[in-house]
């Protein structure tokens, strides 16, 4: 597996570079194509063992996020420094910016001590980046206040593994999908969050017809739709569910007593706890039919082997560690671990959350899975680094760090490759922290995140396509990340930025230098990423994740490898604990005897709805990257909140009505969407909808900050991972009669800049949203921008004129309608496309009901020659017959739901035969496959006709 494969082509020199996708923890290999040094395409790597050439909608559009127009508009391209808080940061040199950061950090350490500094990193950093940051904080500055957004993602999985199996090591691998007879997916919408893994699950089920799929989730997600058995448990009741399943397994003789006696400890204490969870009680607590509990336990306990897959539904909880540990209990009790097709398999959320844990890049960890609380481990790390000691005081974790900064205890926050002003819970506290801190350093690739405006220093970092190093995926597989093009602007690699500040700090902190190992001139001698990785590798010798048999050269020659891979081994280890021995003092796995406890933010008469947050199929986190592409908004185009039809009826709501969603911490206003996936009394809102796309101003002038204005600061006391899967909320109608809707097509760079400019206009509304659109690459390279707002009365004529100018709708060729008395303001602009006229943009103010036909006309570039001034006509009925293509289902080929339903009417046979016919005719589901679960759902809801005369597929 060579680094690059040059190919000569008439269009110019092309080069192909193997790298890894920067999105979820699946760790898909990609092949990046560059032409004249610019990324132009990306394909799945057919030789990579994580994906074998497949990519999801996000991965397959990566090259579009590296386009020059996106880079120029969205990327942070040069350092910037703010000397006064009431001024914006001004462009500066790297030397000036790095000097300022080092001098301010040194000042704060001298004045307030090292624990007055907090470092907050990211699961998108490479392992090499993480390693240098960890050494900078704990080895040089002398604080353990280093945490990352992996705390929001995987820390409960870490704590659960350590509590039961001894170390943080998922014991299974992707190949186990093929060997399992029962798959148990809980707290994970794998079809959306890990779509390439779901493709492998689909393949395994097709190859093994007897394989059973059980899905436990409060929502009937796309993953649950595929299940043989769906368990709709109530939010936060997972521990009761797992105790109940083990109770049934005990009662029916489905446990493996020989395995328990030979390889575990603590079972008798757990048995007494489990005895208090009979099926009837668990059914009542969880809201799951008793018969389904019995069936699940029998399939998991006797229909062996069983593989459990889980993600944020278990992790993001105030009882996250207990949820993880009690599921592992079931596997230990039934001997379902260390065997092909069996085991508790935590699916990692971020591309390198695993790598960050490997180097100790969190507040409670040290390098190579060493524990900060262990004095011997601290001594080992101090010796490895050549320093006198590593501080023993536990560091503050993510939520604690920002709470401390809000109180004024932490004076400096250094934030790298993450967006806490969007992603952390309880946003009011987070923003107070960012405003209170004396120094906020933001090290970031994108200039458009909600955290950037709070920065005193901006440090531009490289990103996907420009970085070099390694990442580790969910199955412990280490892959290379390689640069395919030069850094954009003045961006530098994250590890280099940490190194350069560290070297400056060394000169400013002579008292620390005096304690180093004799002869040491710097703790940061690295000139390449490989040198950093080699030091990390050496720190793993003799540890559970020993990778002393690995090297960059071996990864180049043999491809990605799983740890452990000690020196002398020819390849990595696929499965752990095959011999029944565990890395605990006794060599035995430990049962976790923990009680079931309800959620900490209870629903009440005032806050009766349980709000769950999660992922969309085509978006990633705060959308700093995916949010630059209009086509990724084709499936879900705007922010909304999902409710069951019963909850809408009780509140007198209709589809699309605006509602205020209020928790005990804050509120947002969003449109409501009826969803069959929801149960009564529950709501869902995508985690991606932050202040970058959703905003407005509250009645007291406070800014509305997106979904995490609502979420809870409660966290698991063992893992410190916050509760993001449940918040008690109230939902009520909002009366905002004056509405505005604007859509325009623009060149990509102008569109990105317009979105940034429109953020300032969002504050003029009680509710506002601004997103891109565009279902497929536009023939003229244009990108759509949509702005929507609602308020109690019309803004001034001057404001509307300024808005028109901003949108480019102030030209003489625009059609206009003004009715000040009725608050109506309408502007339409057309342009020539070939011999026809199409809409270039429009603004509707007041009555926007004509959106139902104007918006499809613009988005689908339908001819409007026959409309004339009727384009200005208010009302939901078009003056000329129109037909919308409908909601997009397949992003790759822009296939809509109406087209699918129409084609299904002609497709006969079994569900698999109809799917095959549908794919053959429309191509949907034949590229990345992310839409296949929804296609199967549509097939199920539109059964084949019984008419024997119907044409064959």
TrEMBL record:
<keyword id="KW-0479">Metal-binding</keyword>
<keyword id="KW-0534">Nitrate assimilation</keyword>
<dbReference type="InterPro" id="IPR027467">
    <property type="entry name" value="MopterinOxRdtase_cofactor_BS"/>
</dbReference>
<dbReference type="GO" id="GO:0051539">
    <property type="term" value="F:4 iron, 4 sulfur cluster binding"/>
</dbReference>
<keyword id="KW-0500">Molybdenum</keyword>
<keyword id="KW-0408">Iron</keyword>
<dbReference type="GO" id="GO:0046872">
    <property type="term" value="F:metal ion binding"/>
</dbReference>
<dbReference type="GO" id="GO:0042128">
    <property type="term" value="P:nitrate assimilation"/>
</dbReference>
<dbReference type="Pfam" id="PF00384">
    <property type="entry name" value="Molybdopterin"/>
</dbReference>
<feature type="domain" description="4Fe-4S Mo/W bis-MGD-type">
    <location>
        <begin position="14"/>
        <end position="70"/>
    </location>
</feature>
<comment type="similarity">
    <text>Belongs to the prokaryotic molybdopterin-containing oxidoreductase family. NasA/NapA/NarB subfamily.</text>
</comment>
<dbReference type="InterPro" id="IPR006963">
    <property type="entry name" value="Mopterin_OxRdtase_4Fe-4S_dom"/>
</dbReference>
<keyword id="KW-0004">4Fe-4S</keyword>
<dbReference type="GO" id="GO:0045333">
    <property type="term" value="P:cellular respiration"/>
</dbReference>
<dbReference type="InterPro" id="IPR006656">
    <property type="entry name" value="Mopterin_OxRdtase"/>
</dbReference>
<dbReference type="InterPro" id="IPR007419">
    <property type="entry name" value="BFD-like_2Fe2S-bd_dom"/>
</dbReference>
<dbReference type="InterPro" id="IPR009010">
    <property type="entry name" value="Asp_de-COase-like_dom_sf"/>
</dbReference>
<keyword id="KW-0411">Iron-sulfur</keyword>
<protein>
    <submittedName>
        <fullName>Nitrate reductase</fullName>
    </submittedName>
</protein>
<dbReference type="InterPro" id="IPR041854">
    <property type="entry name" value="BFD-like_2Fe2S-bd_dom_sf"/>
</dbReference>
<dbReference type="InterPro" id="IPR050123">
    <property type="entry name" value="Prok_molybdopt-oxidoreductase"/>
</dbReference>
<dbReference type="GO" id="GO:0016491">
    <property type="term" value="F:oxidoreductase activity"/>
</dbReference>
<dbReference type="GO" id="GO:0043546">
    <property type="term" value="F:molybdopterin cofactor binding"/>
</dbReference>
<dbReference type="GO" id="GO:1990204">
    <property type="term" value="C:oxidoreductase complex"/>
</dbReference>
<dbReference type="Pfam" id="PF04879">
    <property type="entry name" value="Molybdop_Fe4S4"/>
</dbReference>
<dbReference type="InterPro" id="IPR041957">
    <property type="entry name" value="CT_Nitrate-R-NapA-like"/>
</dbReference>
<dbReference type="Pfam" id="PF01568">
    <property type="entry name" value="Molydop_binding"/>
</dbReference>
<dbReference type="GO" id="GO:0016020">
    <property type="term" value="C:membrane"/>
</dbReference>
<keyword id="KW-0560">Oxidoreductase</keyword>
<dbReference type="Pfam" id="PF04324">
    <property type="entry name" value="Fer2_BFD"/>
</dbReference>
<dbReference type="InterPro" id="IPR006657">
    <property type="entry name" value="MoPterin_dinucl-bd_dom"/>
</dbReference>
């Amino acid at each position: 597996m060579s680094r690059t494969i040059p190919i000569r082509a008439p269009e110019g020199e092309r080069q192909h570079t193997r790298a890894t996708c920067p999105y979820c923890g699946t760790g898909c290999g990609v092949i990046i194509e560059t032409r004249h040094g610019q990324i132009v395409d990306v394909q799945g790597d057919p030789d990579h063992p994580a994906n074998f050439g497949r990519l999801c909608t996000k991965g397959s559009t990566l090259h579009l996020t590296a386009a020059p127009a996106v880079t120029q508009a969205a990327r942070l391209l040069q350092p910037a420094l703010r000397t006064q808080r009431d001024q914006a940061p001004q462009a500066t040199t790297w030397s000036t910016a790095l000097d300022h950061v080092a001098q301010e950090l040194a000042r704060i350490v001298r004045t307030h001590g090292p624990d007055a500094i907090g470092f907050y990193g990211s699961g998108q950093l490479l392992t090499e980046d993480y390693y240098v940051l960890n050494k900078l904080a704990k080895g040089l500055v002398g604080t353990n206040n280093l945490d990352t957004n992996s705390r929001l993602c995987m820390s409960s999985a870490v704590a659960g593994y350590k509590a039961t199996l001894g170390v943080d090591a998922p014991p299974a691998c992707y190949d186990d999908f093929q060997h399992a007879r029962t798959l148990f997916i809980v707290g994970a919408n794998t079809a959306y969050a890990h779509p390439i893994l779901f493709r492998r699950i689909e393949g395994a089920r097709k190859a093994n017809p007897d394989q059973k799929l059980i899905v436990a989730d409060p929502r009937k997600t796309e993953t649950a739709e595929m299940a043989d058995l769906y368990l709709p448990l109530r939010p936060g009741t997972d521990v009761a569910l797992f105790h109940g399943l083990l109770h049934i397994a005990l009662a029916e003789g489905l446990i493996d007593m020989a395995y328990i006696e030979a390889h575990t400890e603590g079972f008798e204490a757990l048995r007494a706890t489990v005895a208090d969870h009979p099926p009837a009680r668990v059914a009542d607590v969880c809201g799951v039919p008793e018969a389904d509990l019995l069936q699940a336990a029998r399939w998991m306990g006797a229909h062996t082997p069983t593989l459990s897959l889980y993600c944020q539904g278990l992790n993001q909880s105030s009882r996250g560690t207990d949820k993880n540990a009690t599921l592992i209990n079931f596997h230990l009790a039934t001997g379902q671990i260390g065997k092909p097709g069996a085991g508790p398999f935590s699916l990692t959320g971020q591309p390198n959350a695993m790598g960050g844990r490997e180097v100790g890049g969190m507040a409670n960890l040290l390098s190579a899975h060493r524990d900060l609380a262990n004095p011997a481990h601290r001594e080992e790390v101090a010796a490895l680094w050549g320093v006198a000691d590593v501080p023993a005081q536990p560091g503050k974790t993510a939520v604690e760090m920002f709470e401390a900064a809000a109180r004024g205890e932490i004076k400096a926050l250094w934030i790298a490759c993450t967006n806490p002003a969007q992603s952390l819970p309880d946003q009011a506290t987070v923003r107070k922290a960012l405003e209170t801190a004396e120094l906020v350093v933001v090290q970031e690739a994108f200039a458009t995140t909600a955290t950037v405006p709070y920065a005193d220093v901006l440090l531009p970092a490289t990103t996907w396509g420009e970085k070099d190093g390694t990442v580790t995926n969910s199955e412990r597989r280490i892959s290379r990340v390689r640069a395919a093009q030069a850094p954009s602007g003045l961006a530098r690699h994250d590890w280099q930025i940490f190194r350069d500040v560290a070297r400056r700090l060394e000169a400013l902190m002579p008292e620390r230098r005096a304690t180093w190992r004799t002869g040491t001139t710097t703790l940061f001698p690295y000139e390449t990423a490989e040198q950093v990785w080699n030091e990390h590798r050496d720190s793993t010798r003799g540890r559970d994740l020993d990778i002393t048999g690995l090297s960059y050269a071996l990864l180049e020659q043999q491809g990605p490898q799983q740890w452990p891979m000690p020196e002398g081994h020819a390849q990595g280890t696929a499965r752990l604990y095959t011999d029944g021995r565990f890395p605990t003092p006794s060599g035995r796995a430990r049962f976790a005897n923990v009680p079931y406890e309800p959620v900490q933010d209870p629903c009440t008469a005032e806050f009766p709805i349980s709000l769950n947050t999660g992922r969309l199929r085509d978006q990633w986190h705060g959308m700093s990257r995916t949010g630059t592409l209009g086509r990724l908004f084709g499936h879900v185009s705007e922010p909304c909140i999902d409710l069951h039809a019963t909850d809408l009826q009780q509140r007198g709501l209709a589809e699309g009505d605006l509602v205020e969603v209020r928790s005990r911490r804050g509120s947002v206003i969003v449109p409501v969407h009826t969803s069959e996936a929801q149960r009564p009394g529950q709501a869902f809102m995508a985690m991606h909808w932050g202040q970058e796309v959703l905003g407005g101003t509250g009645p007291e002038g406070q800014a509305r900050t997106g979904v995490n204005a609502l979420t809870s600061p409660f966290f698991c006391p063992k893992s410190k991972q916050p509760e993001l899967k449940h918040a008690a909320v109230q939902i009520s109608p909002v009366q905002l009669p004056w509405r505005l809707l604007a859509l325009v097509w623009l060149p990509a760079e102008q569109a990105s800049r317009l979105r940034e400019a429109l953020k300032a206009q969002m504050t003029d509304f009680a509710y506002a949203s601004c997103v891109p659109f565009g279902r497929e690459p536009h023939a003229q390279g244009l990108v759509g921008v949509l702005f929507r707002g609602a308020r109690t009365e019309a803004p001034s004529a001057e404001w509307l004129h300024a808005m028109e100018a901003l949108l480019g709708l102030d030209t003489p060729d625009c059609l206009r309608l003004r009715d000040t008395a009725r608050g109506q303001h309408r502007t339409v602009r057309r342009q020539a496309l070939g011999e026809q006229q199409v809409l270039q943009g429009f603004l509707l103010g007041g009555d926007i009901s004509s959106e139902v036909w104007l918006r499809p006309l613009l988005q689908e570039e339908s001819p409007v020659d026959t409309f004339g001034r009727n384009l200005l006509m208010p009302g939901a009925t078009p003056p000329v017959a129109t037909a919308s293509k409908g909601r997009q289902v397949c992003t790759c080929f822009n296939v809509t739901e109406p087209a699918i339903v129409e084609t299904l009417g002609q497709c006969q046979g079994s569900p698999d035969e109809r799917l095959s016919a549908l794919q053959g005719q429309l191509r949907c589901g034949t590229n990345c496959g992310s839409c296949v679960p929804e296609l199967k759902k549509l097939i199920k809801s539109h059964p084949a006709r019984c008419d024997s005369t119907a044409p064959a597929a």
